[in-house]
C-alpha cells in the first residue's frame, strides 16, 4: 500500500450512517473493512489479553490485532510488551506456539534471536551482518496499557490515553472484577474460537441487543429455566432490564433491575454457595456485598473487541468482511471455592461457542443476515426507542431493554472513529515512508 | 481380543448410532445413552476433562437431556431444518474394559450440508472414542468423546449431534 491517503478517504461514512439507520455496505464492502482495520484496529485501542494469562516472566500468548499477528509477553521487569509476530529479517512467524514461556524467541528460518522485549540479541554467521542490532528488533505496538488486568494496545503512538478511551466504562470493568472477593479474575481456562460467516460488527451489536432474545432463543426458553426468564423474556411492560450507551462505543444490557434475589444471575439460590456470599460481604461490606450479589456481573461490550459477557470474557476478531471469530473463556474468580469456578466453566460451555444453547442460534441468524446483505444491499433500521431513551446523571444513555439505544451508541462512535479527527494516519504514513 | 460376534455387535451399534445422528432422530439417538453418559468435544488436543480448561462441549447425562429437549422444540434455529449429514466410520479398534463393556476407537469423517444457513458443505474429521455396555441384551453407550482434528479452531457452528 503505497498510497498515502487514508483507506477510508473515498468512503462517505456520513452518508452511510444516519442517526436512525445504517447502510448494509458497512457489513459487506471490502474497502470499508480495510478502513476499519486501519482506523479502529491499528489507530485505536484493542483488547489483547488479561494479565492473569501471562503471570510469570517469559509467559506469552499469541493474538491478532485486526488481522495483524502479535504476541503479548511479560518481560523480566514484569512489564507486558505486545510485539508483531514477524521476524525483522524475512518475516517468518517468530512465536509459533499459542501460549507458553520463553527466555528468547528464535526464528526457525535463519536463527535470528530476540529477547522478551523484541530486541535483536543474536544472528548466526554475524560476520556477514552489517546492520545495527538496535535497528533490527521486532516491531512493538507503540502503546500498551492495562486496566484491572485487562491489557490493551495500539499501533498508534499518538492515540489518546486508555483512560480517555474507556471513559465511564471503567465502571463496567470494575463490576466484572468485583465479582471476586479479592477483586481479581483469572483467565486460565483456555479459549474456544467460534467462526461465524458474518461481519465482525454483528458480534458487538448482537451481544448487546436485548430485542432478539424471544425470537432467536425460543428453544432455549422452552428447554431451560434460567435467570433470563425474568431478565429478558417478559412482555414489554414487565421488562425491567435496560439497554445502555456508555459513550465511546461501549454498550450494555443491564439485567440487574430484573433480579430480586441474591445469585439469581447465577441461576441458583444464595445458600448454594454460602462461603462465596460471605466472602463478598466481608470484602466489600454488607451494603456493597449485597448489591454485587443481587446485581451480578455486567453484560457489556468495550469497543471494539471485548465483551464482558457476564461470567465469560469474549474477544471479537475480524477476519474478512464476511468472516469473524467469537472467542470466549470462562471468567474465573480468585478467592472463591473451586465449585464456584466449576459452575462458571459449565455455564460458559452452555452459553457460548459452536455447540452452545445460546450462541449457536445467534450464529445462524447472523449468517443469514450476512446473506441478506449481499449485492447492492439496503438500509438497516436502528430507530427503535429513540424517543423514549433518557440520559442519566452520569451521561449514560438508558433505554428499554428492547430498544436500539446500545447499537445507536456503537454506531455513533464508529462513525466518529471512521471519519477521523484528522487526515494523518500514522499507519499510512509509515507505509508510504 | 474380542470375538467376531462381539465385533459385529459393536460395529452394528456404531453404524446405528451414526445413522440416528445423521438423520437428526434426536430422541432415538438419546435412547442409546446410559445414565452415566459423558458426551464430550474437547477444545485442545490432549485435554483432560477435569483440568479446568474449557471444552467445546462437555455434557453429563442431565445436560445432554437438555440439549435433546432443545433440539426437539422445533425452534432451535441452528438446526431448522436439520443439517443433512453423512458420516463414514473406519479404523474400528475394540478393547474389552470389563465383562460386557468395551472401549472403541474409530475414525470418522462427517460431511455436513448446512442447509439452514449458507448452504455450504462442512467436513468434520475426528477421532472418536466410545465406551459401550451390553445391558439386557442391548448395546448402549456411556461415553462418546469426539476429538475434532481442528478442535483449537476456528470451529463453525456445531449444533447437530456429532
From TrEMBL, chain B:
Source organism phylogeny: Bacteria, Pseudomonadati, Pseudomonadota, Alphaproteobacteria, Sphingomonadales
UniProt superkingdom: Bacteria
Family indicated by similarity: Belongs to the bacterial ring-hydroxylating dioxygenase beta subunit family.
Protein name per the record: 3-phenylpropionate/cinnamic acid dioxygenase, small subunit
GO biological process: 3-phenylpropionate catabolic process
Alphabetical keyword list: Oxidoreductase
An MF annotation (GO) of this entry: oxidoreductase activity
